Structure prediction request, 431 residues.
Amino acid sequence: MLGFFDSLLLWGNLSVSLLVIVIGALLVPALSLRDALLAIVVGAIAGNALLALAALIGADARVPGMVVLRAPLGKRGSYGPTVLNVAQNVGWSTFELIIIATAAGALSRHLFHWEGKWLWTIVFGAVSWGLGMLGPIGFVRRYLRKFASWALVFAMAYLTYWAVSKSNLHAFWARPGTGGFPTFGEAVDLVIGSVVSWTPLAADYTRFSRSRKGACWGAGIGYLVPTIWCIGLGILIVLARGVSDAQALPTAVAAAGGVAFLALAAITIDESEKAFADIYSTAVSIQNLVPRVSQRLLITLVSAAATALALALNLGNYQDFLYLLGSFFVPLFGVLLADWLVAGAHYAPRDLFEAPAFRIEQIAAWLVGFGLYQWLSPSGPHWWKSLVDHTHPGHDSLTASLPAFGAAFALAALGALLVRRPRSRGALAEA
Prediction:
């Protein structure tokens, strides 16, 4: 079982990524440094509050994330978010392997004058598969506790020094934003989205927690601090070093030489943890559709698919599609939280394994929340934005995430109160 410190290590390591760091490149120069940092703090606090609650629900239910969704949406109703979550995780695991291979290739090119990205893609695809086979408990105890977390702290400390050493912080602070995309509200949504994308996965790991409290605080605090650090660091890197692309960052760091090689090696190895998490959760999510298929077999198949995609694709445009998928998960969690609270802040086994096929009222609440999000801030690939942009109200809301979450939560709570009554304290004690 995972204690508070284990959860803190797990979520702290999962929050540090080259992909998270370069979110900062999306915030400036449109926003001033002051506004960008404020957006990071607001978005990180809001997003991590939701992640902590998702971790709490997972520790309470003791089942994977997609199985938890059977309670609010129904058994077959949970298939919709399962498919979306699989698509999201396969995309991110593929992109993680591309970034890892790029970083390893940058090191290899400077050391051996040979990049070999295809070889590094296969190697780290195999590493991610091996970590997936360990499972969350083995991953934390055999990998994170022993060396990965210390290597990560070193890498982040060096990258911070690397950025700050070329920074004129006074000039950066005084420089106004240029305007345009993103606005302050869109920046907050971007940060919230990067955190909330983990909420469908949270229960996959916190079901192994010793206590609900340890899971909640471990995820909430463990993911919060590194998120603020990483995205803030990304802002400094783009302002001081002019690096605004995840795939360009490894080459820029490697060019510094010396200690930079060790830092880049450490963060490259750390990046494989995110690929592990996405691959593992993809396999666990698929089991909601085909529960009798071996988890180890699914991990192997997903690892092979992600590695093959990483060898074949450039996923730059696929990120827009992933943002579209992400806009589903903010209102989805609003539905889950409302239903769980109405159920007495506890899901009994019958809520999960004897759920009806569909709970139409909760599915409708979810879709209303998604529609509100897209109305306030259309996001996704160009074809989707062209389709829905004409519905935009014509002014910039503070955020789209919070209204979408609030609407889905309120409608789901109303639906749960009308359709099923909360269990008594006696029934909760029996459960």
Notes: The two ends are 21 Å apart (CA to CA). The chain has one domain: 4-317. The mean pLDDT is 84. The CA atoms of residues 126 and 403 lie 42 Å apart.
